[in-house]
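fyi for ur records
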Amino acid sequence: MKPSGKHQPLFRSSEHRLDSSRAFAVGADTYDAVRPSYPSEVVELLGNRGITRRVLDVGSGTGIFAAQLHAAGHRVSCCEPSKDMVNTLRDQHPNFPVWRATAEHTAAASEFFDAVTFAQAWHWVDPRQASAEAARITRPDGELLLCWNTLEVEHPWVLRLAKIMHSGDVLTKGFYPTVFEPWHLKRELRTTWIQPIRTDQLFTLMATRSYWLRANQRTRDKMTNNLTWYLHERLGFDPGQLIPLPYRTDAFLYGRR
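which gave:
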């Protein structure tokens, strides 16, 4: 079993990409409960420069990364297409301005933001349109930050886990996202870290993946049975046991030409 060599998800068409992304119309509470945050070094790529910076977090989900930006001193706004995600975000972070919109059409004012961020979201967008929209709504010295958390499948047991969970093992080690003019890469961050997680939470984590959200009950039952066998029989973990789950984070900071 080998890790994927893909640099991005392979959708059959833009319609297939949009249909896959619509899976997140439900399940926001589960997503918020189990998806991890990002290493502090990712937020530090933006810097603070001693002033309050206006940042738009696009595809905010439930506000996991937006909360980290806010804690670092940035003035954060959020846009997200899923109504369910927006409702959870508003419950969790009632002081964040948030509206429903896409990366391609944010409905934000031109040259208003100092930076635009995408955490675990750029692979769901049309990169050419989203690049242009990010350029439209940022100042001439604005920045674009993209980041991903990916299961560290260099570990053989994690690779098989990712396959069973259909965790989107599509970002090969050392990948670069597709980004268009006027953006150019300024800095990148590649780091690994460990998330302590209990075995029962892995079932919840599996339920936040787009494959699960789009699957019928028969497929979900099969995935659950496979994960149960793998964790408790093949690996010998006890129910509820705390285990170290390795992650890899890739982040990219772009500037305007």
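The longest strand covers residues 183-198. thats all i got for now
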